[in-house]
Amino acid sequence: MEQNIGFIGLGAMGYPMAKNIRTKMSRQSNLWVYDVQREVCERFAQEFKDSGPISIANSAKEVAQNALTIATIVPTGHHVRQVYLGELSGVTAAKGLPHDKERLYLECSTIDMATARDVGQKLEGMGMGRYVDCPVSGGVPAAHSGTLSMLVGASKPTPGEAERGVSKRLQDLLLWMGDAKKHFYCGDLGSGLAAKICNNYLSCTILLANAEAMATGVKLGLDPKILYQVIANSTGQNFMCDHVCPVPGVVPHAPSSNGYKLGFKAQMLSKDVGLGIEAANSVNIKPSIGEAAIAVFDQVGKDERCIDHDASVVYRFLGGPE
Ligand code: NAD
């Protein structure tokens, strides 16, 4: 049981992250998976059955009963509470095992810091192990290639610590899912989320600025490929335009050139910018750009043309020519 690993939330990000864990962990140990959509667990168990043993759990509680190391990635803080604190079927319902204190939880969702701190402190207060917030960055492609940035809400273990116990298990998970050059130890519980929220405040608002600028330029008659070349070689150059250019057919690997598929769902824009606005307000910084952006994102998240498409579909919402 000590070597077994649990993974909860096999969505767009979790599925490939769990794949990397299963293919890199010991073939002798079991990977316990759980998602409220059982069919996703069945597909996962079938697809990776040759990599080592996989068991499908019926609840987060069952995962905690069978694994000492557990990674989770679900949509919102509400879902994180369900997974960890759900009265009958959450992780805490598994309390009472001899190894409770040894458990390690790596919580990778993008949620608010207060929820992470509350859940983490409750688990530790109950003697149920160590909870580390570890939001990730790089999107679905980096989740597949195991090159995510890992924003760890903990301080860096010393070289001695990193080789044993909970710290060793933490290191292993980070290495299996993330790029070793992109493991960022941000401080205390909640600090990984603070960093993630600030980063996503930027990436989401820049995505909107790109869509507005490109839609304007194309409607003014510019060839979108030329406009992109100008931006890519001028002061407007940015990662989002280079990799998530919103105009179809300009950057071949961008979601827009592939039917706006995969990537970061349009409905998540309001959540992430909302987290940034809340965080800024909590420290008396006025989030004026975020407030303007969320007014657009709230509509994008309800628009049939945008739901379940990559967030760069906001270009289509604005009426950008395709
Ligand atoms: P998703 O909706 O594709 O997947 C979430 C999964 O969690 C689903 O399979 C769902 O069935 C499952 N789930 C929900 N509640 C559950 C519960 N109580 N117990 C077990 N499973 C449950 O979402 P995603 O795109 O994978 O994003 C997950 C998190 O990662 C979000 O917080 C998101 O902001 C963050 N994130 C996403 C990206 C991205 O590019 N998609 C990048 C970085 C971070």
Summarize the structure.
The protein has 322 residues and is of the alpha/beta class. It contains 13 helices and nine strands. The structure holds nicotinamide-adenine-dinucleotide (NAD).
Average pLDDT reading: 96
CATH fold field value of the largest domain: Rossmann fold
Largest sheet: 6 strands, parallel
Gyration radius, in Å: 20 Å
How far do the termini sit from each other? 54 Å
Overall, the morphology is globular
Helix run count = 13
Poorly predicted ranges: none
**Total domains, how many?**
2
Write out the CATH superfamily name of the largest domain: NAD(P)-binding Rossmann-like Domain
Number of DSSP strands?
Answer: 9
Order of helices and strands: EHEHEHEHEHEEHEHEHHHHHH
Fraction of residues in helices? 40-55%
Per CATH, which architecture of the largest domain? 3-Layer(aba) Sandwich
Protein architecture, described:
Helix content is 45%, strand content 12%. It folds into 2 domains: 184 residues, Rossmann fold, CATH 3.40.50.720; 124 residues, N-(1-d-carboxylethyl)-l-norvaline Dehydrogenase, domain 2, CATH 1.10.1040.10. The strands form 2 sheets. Strands 3-2-1-4-5-6 form a 6-stranded parallel β-sheet, with helices on both faces. It has 13 helices and 9 strands. The longest helix has 29 residues. The structure holds nicotinamide-adenine-dinucleotide (NAD). The site of nicotinamide-adenine-dinucleotide has 28 residues, from helix 4, strand 7 and helix 6.
